[in-house]
Design goal:
The chain is α+β, with helices and mostly antiparallel strands. Helices cover about 35% and strands about 15% of the residues. Helix 4 runs antiparallel to helix 5 and helix 5 crosses helix 8. The longest helix has 24 residues. The chain is globular.
């Protein structure tokens, strides 16, 4: 469900730290801008607290959930140190009222580069195995910090949430922890059923009504495998553009993905086998030792 964001002038009135705003993307109840502040360029996120129908109790529950997700994302990012994860910016989350509607705005660092989605969509030269490994390693290191240090599952690793940079120290950076899930956290109001997800990048276990008891870092391994496969082959291993929502979800749950070797015969058997293993439908069949997987990708074995 989309919303119409307020004008740039009204946003700057509510957040006078902003000296410029340039729209980047929007989705759901969130809009993202490239902005300028005293410290330099940053990404500014404006989240609309849902104006939904229902009883006062239901409205209060939705509002509480929206605020909870924002606090969770900001709280996670404030604790993470890996260069493969986006950092917070200078504007701390602030609740404002614009034209009678509640919004929360905050900023993150501006990661220079292009989203992996744009890189794939440009249909340029396919990456070699070394670059595909760098992508996989960056995502694995981000997962390692989220899981080992904070017991967090990102849940939304996909090309649109990965930036490709020209910085050798952080070639790929993972963004957007808006639907991240902490195993030690109290359930959010509407985090039942399938919960929020991106259909083309949904791990099969997310479709379970009891997904809260069935996810761990291996859920992020699955979406990492999807992202690495699509970057490498310029083709999603399961989803097709013409698919409707039901077909997309059905493929994620039931259809075995195509092997990476089929599309990248120039890649090593070992690397293709590793990517294929991350895409197993059952989490127990995916790699169970994150440290070992990182060592394998680092070593190029």
């Amino acid at each position: 469900m989309a919303f119409n964001p307020p004008s740039d002038d009204k946003i700057r009135d509510a957040f006078p730290e902003l000296t410029s705003l340039n729209h980047i993307a929007a989705g759901g109840f969130k809009v993202v801008y490239r902005s300028s502040v005293a410290a330099g360029p940053e990404v500014f996120k404006l989240v609309c607290l849902p104006q939904l129908g229902g009883t006062d109790e239901e409205k209060a529950a939705y509002r509480k959930e929206a605020l909870g997700r924002i606090r969770r994302e900001v709280g996670i990012l404030s604790k993470c140190q890996r260069p493969e994860l986006v950092k917070l910016g200078t504007i701390a989350p602030r609740l404002v009222l614009i034209d009678g509607v509640e919004y929360v705005g905050y900023s993150e660092e501006l990661v220079p580069g292009e989203s992996l989605k744009k890189v794939i969509g440009a249909r340029g030269p396919k990456p070699d195995e070394a670059e595909a490994r760098r992508l996989m390693l960056a995502l694995l290191r981000a997962i390692e910090e989220l899981w080992a240090d904070h017991r967090i599952v990102h849940r939304d690793i996909k090309p649109d949430n990965v930036m490709k940079t020209n910085d050798p120290a952080r070639s790929f950076v993972l963004l957007d922890l808006g639907i991240a899930y902490g195993l030690q956290d109290t359930a959010l109001t509407h985090d039942h059923g399938m919960g929020p997800f991106t259909p083309r990048y949904m791990a099969p276990e997310i479709a379970r009504s009891d997904f809260r008891q069935n996810i761990d870092f291996r859920t992020d391994l699955y979406t990492t495998g999807l992202t690495v496969f699509e970057f490498s082959a310029q083709l999603h291993p399961l989803a097709r553009t013409q698919d409707d929502l039901v077909t997309t979800i059905s493929r994620a749950i039931r259809q075995p993905p195509r092997p990476l070797k089929q599309d990248r015969p120039d890649f090593s058997d070992a690397f293709c086998a590793l990517v294929d293993q991350t895409l197993k439908k059952k989490p127990m069949l995916r790699p169970s030792n994150l440290t070992s997987v990182i060592a394998i990708v680092e070593g190029g074995k």
